[in-house]
Design goal:
Layout lengths: L11 E10 L2 E6 L6 E5 L20 E10 L4 E5 L5 H25 L5 H12 L5 H11 L11 H14 L5 E10 L5 H13 L8 E8 L2 E8 L2 H21 L3 E5 L8
Parallel strand pairs: 3-5
Antiparallel strand pairs: 1-2, 1-4, 2-3, 4-5, 6-8, 6-9, 7-8
Helix pairs in contact: 1-4, 3-4, 5-6
Length: 265
């Protein structure tokens, strides 16, 4: 997707070096439709520059800062030297994510999707998310719930979710905790099994993978995989709480701890 307007002063843009002259570099702006900027030789690199071609090459992808925009004269002044390495990497990743999201839009709605429909769907997503990529990533993690507030019909939402689930690599985190379960009654083993089933729960959200495994009496391991640490930690503590409440109701006791009890190995 290319923007039809103009970039703002101070904005970082991704572009391709289109022409190199003795006085600077012309850059085609990849994110803006039919827009071209000029990076003066003094803004290509720090220090004295003898030959611009020692610093940039034809067809090179660069990240530049927009210094000034004059819509009347159709001029965009750029600076390559004002972009540090961290900013460059971050912007390139953002640009790559945008390209991925563009491809996913075509997968979801067909590569022959017209500009009007593309804009309508994209604008609906952007009204709720910072970028198309964020919208697809959230759909991959949370399913249709992620798009509840997005102004799209059910068929469009399903297309986005299906595409996201098949194509988006979701970053997950893993956390582990332990719970000791003891129940000194005649059918204590059965009571502990019920507590473990309670820990695994029936209503765990689909974006969370939770597993309870036996370590060694009376210790059980709870492993949680989730999209972020807060979600994972909350799910871990909730699972331990469910086990504790279940065993306590049957006269047993539970102890939750994050590290394994080495002396019980």
């Amino acid at each position: 997707m290319q923007y039809s307007g103009w970039p703002d002063a101070g904005e970082l843009i991704v572009g391709e070096v289109d022409e190199i002259t003795d006085f600077g570099v012309f850059v085609d702006l990849d994110e803006y439709e039919n827009k071209r900027g000029l990076c003066h030789i003094s803004e290509v690199a720090s220090g004295w520059i003898k030959n611009v071609r020692d610093h940039v090459r034809q067809g090179q992808t660069v990240v530049a800062k927009v210094l000034e925009v004059d819509e009347g004269s159709q001029q965009i002044d750029l600076s390559i030297k004002d972009v540090n390495e961290h900013q460059r990497k971050e912007k390139i990743q953002e640009w790559k994510n945008q390209q991925k999201a563009d491809n996913w839009m075509e997968v979801a709605f067909g590569d022959d999707i017209d500009d009007e429909r593309y804009s309508a769907v994209a604008n609906a997503i952007l009204a709720e998310f910072e970028s198309l990529y964020d919208g697809f990533e959230s759909a991959a993690i949370h399913g249709t719930d992620a798009l509840d507030e997005v102004d799209l019909d059910d068929e469009e939402i399903e297309a986005i979710v299906d595409t996201a689930r098949q194509n988006v690599s979701v970053p997950y985190v893993n956390v582990t905790g332990y719970v000791d379960l003891r129940c000194p009654v005649g059918d204590g083993v059965d009571r502990i099994k019920e507590a473990l089933q309670a820990a695994e729960g029936d209503g765990v959200p689909e974006e969370i993978d939770l597993e309870v495994t036996y370590v060694g009496a009376p210790e059980y391991r709870i492993r949680v995989q989730a999209p972020d640490y807060k979600t994972a930690e909350d799910a871990l503590e909730s699972a331990a709480d469910r086990a504790s409440e279940s065993i306590a109701a049957d006269g047993g006791i539970a102890e939750y701890h994050r590290e394994r009890n080495e002396d019980e190995e």
